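Go through the following before class.
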Amino acid sequence: MQPSNTPTPLWVDAIFVAFAVVVAASSIGFFLWTALARCSWDEGGLRWRWFFVERRIPWEQISDYYSTPSKQQRKTGGGPILVIEAGAHKFRQVPSLWSNVDALKEAVMTSAMSTATRSWGIFGCRAADTHNIEFTYNPWTADAITMYIVGAVALLGSAWLIGKATITFPSTQALMGTAWALGAVAGSAVGPLLFGFMYCAVSVVYFDLRRRGRQRIIVSPAGIRMIDGNVDIAARWDEVTHHGLSTIGRVAKLPCLYIVDTVHGQVEFTTQIKDCLLLRRIISHRAPDAFDPEVFKGDVLGAGPSVARSRNVDVRVFHYRTRTVRALLWFCAFYAIMVPLAPLLRQHVNPVAEAALTLGGIIVMGWFVWRYRTAAVSIDNDAVTQYAAFGERRIAWDDVEVCRKNEFLLTLSGRGTTIGFFDTISDCRKLSQEIRQRAVNARFDKWPTDAKDEKKSA
């Protein structure tokens, strides 16, 4: 087969050039920011420099300072975001991106004497926060816009790919036969269909923003209130019976709905509400005894361990039904389907080999899906149990002799039995901590001690 001399379409070149420009501009911008950004202070006040712009804030103009949880905190692994208010301006600082953060906090507490507070604290949880704080939805957040654009591009690309395969059907049929031509069309449709399914499952959260556009959540030291059209539910904090994370969606249940049950009704909001992490932190601070992890149930993306109680024994089951593992399943499914279809696009193959490839893909995917549904590790007051492929393995805590971590696999050995689990298991950090605390007679080899020593599951 001779290589094609057909020139690349102009629109394809334009896409690659635009992508290269965006990547280069982002890299240059980040480099300039890290080289030029500065924060300093003296007796007169604070000085902030962003790129080539510098702003000075006298100490007497600082009206408030506090910390607030944010998505950057989870991504960078640092502490809460520091916020300093001066008039209409708010200056935010991510602790993990700056040095001498503790010195800055001490300088602000010592010199900013015009504020109502004299120490750092989470906004909405301090004694000085006596006013109402309102939380609303914005349907045009950066995440939502990205999802809309990705969906539109994917839809157009899928239509083009399937259309091209359909248009070239006659020539493919003449060259390779009807069966192979139909296989080529089916193979071209597999990828778009899988992506479309995943996109629809995930984007339900963003399309839900339209329905909640008028919803408002108001919190104060006295209580919580939800206003949603004609629905108006208000309750004091001592009237909150329980609160926790639940799921949204029918096809793929996403842990994106937070429920607050009160004696006057149910207050609920999704993670797409503005400053959701701050709202959840305030609720946990104001009603600490009402938190109920059992609200978070079911086979969901990124689910934590389930808890069962019987005969006063706590049993925690850590499974593999996480976002990371599910993404790997989709990846394997795509290749399991494309492997037997790929030869159809190029040349004739032996029907026996084609059938073997297809059967092999089905067997492998069937094994992965079965283990995804059944594999788990449970712990109770007496022992640790692994639900392996060919039966259960159980080791009493007093019999655990060695706990070892090798790359992605963590193992426990004792009395001739070995239990192993991958670090993609749900809440691997919590499970490894529980094992370290309970296996008092064991020797630990490279066993994780904190979140930085292991990969977190999604």
User: Anything to note?
Assistant: Residues 294-313, 451-458 have pLDDT under 50 and may be disordered. The first strand starts at residue 38 and ends at 41. DSSP finds ten helices and 22 strands in the chain. The two ends are 45 Å apart (CA to CA).
